[in-house]
């Protein structure tokens, strides 16, 4: 990449916010995944939407690839530039712009960390419904681009379900606001209005392939009076599947998790049973008492599982994945989504692949509305078992696809594109090419599009 | 190019999962204990690029070991823009969320040592401090003869005593009121002590921290033998950095020490407990306390002096005590190196002054001469009324001494 573009970028964001020094590029060459090192050519840290816009205009003109980055914590290599170019690090854009208590909405710059935003609103008596468990650098933009989840999803869905609107810089540099604020004179208070389709969705779950998110408005909720919790132990995957089905159908909880005993071992937690289901309730005190009581009643009536009063209300996260491993053992997470009815089958496939490759493993499910988001972990020795792990991940994805799962965030995995229904892929290609005519946004990500 | 010191950390370096937990907070937002502070790494806070976080530095270290990165001057400069505050590696909530398991500071020190051996480091200010230490045995280059100028008038000290007071360069030359107050307090508490006088050399922390191991080792040998010469079985420091280096780095060079290393606040808290020091004068101030990283987090879990300084402060009548966001293990760095890292130190110190203001304090007390220096400089540059003082000078006021 020529020095000319570096100079131009320096003019836009200031010399201190651009670098192409090798050691700096290396710092951006990995994310949590086993991909990498994959280096950008230039790192740019813009401080405003206008700067992002100017950077995008330049990138588009010079056909320079751009990869937006927040915390860089995706589990499947999605924060890494596949073909060099610019990494646009949004971390300097971390301001809360407004908390509108009337609209129950908080508007922020997209580079703010999720946890800073939560801390900010919680001090004011508000909350977001999800409780994620990731590294503290995770940004709101990254979370939205990833369509993230958290405990709480069984009632509220995913983070994108709480988004009211976005401010986005298109690949060609225009700044656009979606949501109700796209209507002259209206504030950001609802996502859908009578002005056409939901264009906010174009930028969600798309991993920076459609534009750069620079601003986010999120719906917030009053903190509940109290929370409740029960933990149930099950002997088999099939019983556990039935347990989460019963609780989900009853619609009494805001969070349902399932995990297997191997996961407890990896996370260094006590093992209450071979399978453990957690149910979280929230609301007014009487309401929570009722929900917890009802959960117990339904499981007891079904005659499966036993209450485990000593189960700890935890949702598996960054500590579990990182803490207890003896170096250089690492964990890889090959996520996915599936209907609740195939929970046990999904587990057995995962277990089989793990056994075949002799990988230590543990698995967690978060129920999202009426389906499951899976976090299966394979533990591997980075120096000696990386290839084995990659093969296992590949086989597992294939087995799960055959079962009817959809991938969680496939990142650059090309076999994912092969599995997309052709008509959908053609439609997607049209949209992508319209928005990003020079194919500068996050090249190499799936779905792969031929330009 | 050989990275001999770095190589033993190979496995920890590979274990960094780029999880983003060492750049900025808060963490634990859903914990009943409440969220941790918004800032984690002072270096990243000042220069918000990954390169200036533990994650970036560890990835560079990995690339060196893999042979895919050349050492450049700008890399060296960035590596030294780190206060070694250890905030990137504390245990959190009883479990570490970081798979490098608190090895960050040792890794950075090892890398610095290798770079010095290769002739690529340290940065200029560290070289100058080393030259001053070589010439005058203190970091300021002040004449050795002035080592005891801080001694209170008329105070005669024995040549040998069980307790040796090691004020360190900053409390000797920069803030002599700290050394003087300490001496008066010891005297009042009936603790007989000696000092090394001209034989006190800089503790060597600037050498050890910057990787100048060859210069550090003779300093250790000298100070250990000088201390042994006084017959002391306990060495007491005013400065958290002296404390840390004497207690943890000296044995690496000199083997097991025949003396114990303690910090002033431990001794003062003991004297208060025993009723030998009775602060009776009421001070109407709202105080907060800066936990020095090197008295708490950096030493943890071996030694963490949280309680002792608070005990001293809270023994004073009339005061109102308030905690800043970020204390104990989650303390926030003071900036540490006003000379070596002038900009980073000021930026970091200013943040801490703002924390003290947010806590409603009018006085920011610390128990490290370095923190006192750095925070005092920041308060001055902010033009605030916030008074920065050492715990000993505070106690002196309350004792009416
Ligand atoms: C240990 C661990 C635990 C985790 N736990 C959870 C969890 O509880 N819940 C959960 O949802 N996820 C979890 N994750 C996954 C990960 O943390 C999420 O994907 C997170 O939302 C990513 O955010 P980030 O800021 O790190 O994004 P990055 O990794 O930086 O980026 C994610 C994607 O978004 C794109 N992107 C980033 N910024 C922008 C922008 N401004 N505009 C457009 N595109 C952008 C990037 O190009 C990339 O494709 C976990 C991951 C790990 C490693
Ligand atoms: S040093 Fe630790 S906290 Fe920082 S990125 Fe690496 S594993 Fe995470
Ligand atoms: S030791 Fe302190 S300044 Fe250095 S990388 Fe860690 S947190 Fe940042």
Can you give a write-up of this model?
The complex is a heterodimer of chains A (451) and B (401). Chain A is globular. Chain A contains 14 helices and 20 strands. Chain A has helices spanning 3-13, 22-27, 49-62, 114-123, 140-145, 153-156, 237-250, 261-267, 285-302, 318-322, 343-356, 386-403, 414-418, 422-435; strands at 18-19, 42-44, 66-69, 86-89, 96-100, 105-109, 126-127, 163-169, 175-177, 212-219, 221-222, 226-234, 255-260, 275-283, 306-307, 329-333, 336-339, 360-368, 371-381, 406-407. In chain A, the strands form four sheets. In chain A, strands 12, 13, 14, 15, 16, 17, 18, 19 and 20 form a nine-stranded antiparallel sheet that branches. In chain A, strands 5-6-10-8-9 form a five-stranded antiparallel sheet. Chain B has 401 residues and is α/β, with parallel strands linked by helices. Chain B has three domains: 7-117, no CATH class; 124-272, no CATH class; 278-399, Rossmann fold, CATH 3.40.50. The longest helix of chain B is centred in the middle third of the chain and has 18 residues, at 213-230. The N and C termini of chain B lie far apart (58 Å). In chain B, 59% of the residues are buried. The mean pLDDT of chain B is 95. The interface between A and B is large, with 46 and 45 residues. The structure holds flavin-adenine dinucleotide and iron/sulfur cluster (2 copies). Flavin-adenine dinucleotide is lined by residues 31-32, 67-75, 78-79, 90, 110, 132-134, 138-139, 141-143, 145-146, 148-150, 207-208, 212-213, 317-318, 321, 442 of chain A.
Q: What is the helix fraction of residues of chain A, given as a range?
A: 25-40%
CATH C-level of one domain in chain A: Alpha Beta
C-alpha termini separation of chain B: 58 Å
Q: Give average pLDDT of chain A, whole number.
A: 91
Q: Which range does the strand content of chain B fall in? A: 5-15%
Largest β sheet strand count, sense and barrel closure of chain B: 4 strands, parallel
Counted by DSSP, the helix tally of chain B is 16
**What hetero molecules are in the model?**
flavin-adenine dinucleotide, iron/sulfur cluster
* Helical stretch tally of chain A: 14
Quick one: overall form of chain A? globular
Mean pLDDT of chain B: 95
The H-level CATH homologous superfamily of one domain in chain A, spelled out, is FAD-linked oxidases, C-terminal domain
Number of strands of chain A: 20
Number of strands of chain B: 8
